[in-house]
Amino acid sequence: MIDGAHVDALALAVTLATAAFGLLALWAARRRTPWPPARLRVAAMAWCAAAVVVLALLALSSARLGRGLPPEEPPIEIDVVARQWIWKVQHPEGRRELNELHLPLGYPVRLKLTSEDVPHALAIPAFRVKRFLFVGRETALELKPQQKGEFALYCAARCGPHNAAMRGTVVVIKVRDYLQWARGEVPGESALEAGRRLYVTLKCETCHRPDGAGRGPALAGLIGRTVTLREGTTVTADEDYVRESIREPEAKLVAGYEPVMPSFAGQLSESQLNALVAYLKTLEGGPR
Question: Do the bridges between strand 234-236 and strand 226-228 make them parallel or antiparallel, or are there none, so unpaired?
Fold first, then answer.
């Protein structure tokens, strides 16, 4: 595949060859070559003309590469934080990882790079990229992976005695697989199965005990039930109420409980919220 780097490299090669021929012609003239000056001038002009034609063809080819392409999609922004001796990554859907960086194949990505302690340098040799990371300053790196697979990343700065251990892996997968992975979904998993998995992963039952003796109200049989709020009013716990309570737990506080639940706004996708609702419907007597 021809990309901008290939075109630039070829253009540089042609430029260097032209300069080399000019120096050779100058050297030959100083050595009093048997070629007459008129012949040297013709040869030099012919070589320069050929170089101009080649460069023009390269410019035309480069322009055609970008002509007719659809507008670029807005890039997915991923936070990458470096610290001795690990890489911390957070994706827009809230998914986090250490020393791994999942990227979508053929889709634009903007990495927002920062450091927590000392200067670092993110290097991905397979992508021909390297960026320095500084404390208190954000550096952007835009990528569009063109090959599926796993690729090495490492810190190319001398950031300390264990610099050689500061390595990781870039995992490039299909866009659909990436979106599922970022949302914490499992391919082929039903909404009910996903909801059960999230319920366990988020440790919901730690506070929402079935007997109602936890720090939060019991969730069994919740959907469709009338709930009394702290200010004395009542509300029907429908699906919208559950979604709102997960995003903004303090919006409608249940009577008898303190506002101790953390907000999951921006941390759970709509599909994950739907999955949790689907699972809650099955608690205590099946779907309602």
Answer: antiparallel
Query: φ, ψ for residue 126 (rounded to 5)?
Result: -65, -25
The pLDDT value given to residue 49:
74
Q: What is the pLDDT of residues 154-175, one digit of tens each?
A: 999 998 898 889 999 999 999 9
Q: Are 171 and 101 in contact (CB under 8 A)?
A: yes
Domain containing residue 208? 191-280
Q: Which amino acid is residue 204, in one-letter code?
A: C
Q: What DSSP line would sit under 83-111, residue for residue? A: ETTEEEEE-TTS-EEESEEEEETTS-EEE
Can you give the CATH number for the domain in which 99 is found? 2.60.40.420
242: domain CATH number is 1.10.760.10
State the DSSP code for 147. S
Q: What are phi and psi of 47, to 5 degrees?
A: -65, -45
What is the spatial distance between Cα 271 and Cα 210, in angstroms, rounded to a whole number? Answer: 25
pLDDT digits (tens, 9 = 90+) for 37-85: 666 667 667 767 777 777 777 667 666 655 555 566 799 999 999 999 8
Q: How many CB atoms lie within 10 A of CB 220?
A: 17
Domains contained in the chain, number:
3
Per cent of the chain over pLDDT 90 is 40
287: helix, strand or coil: coil
d(CA 127, CA 147): 10
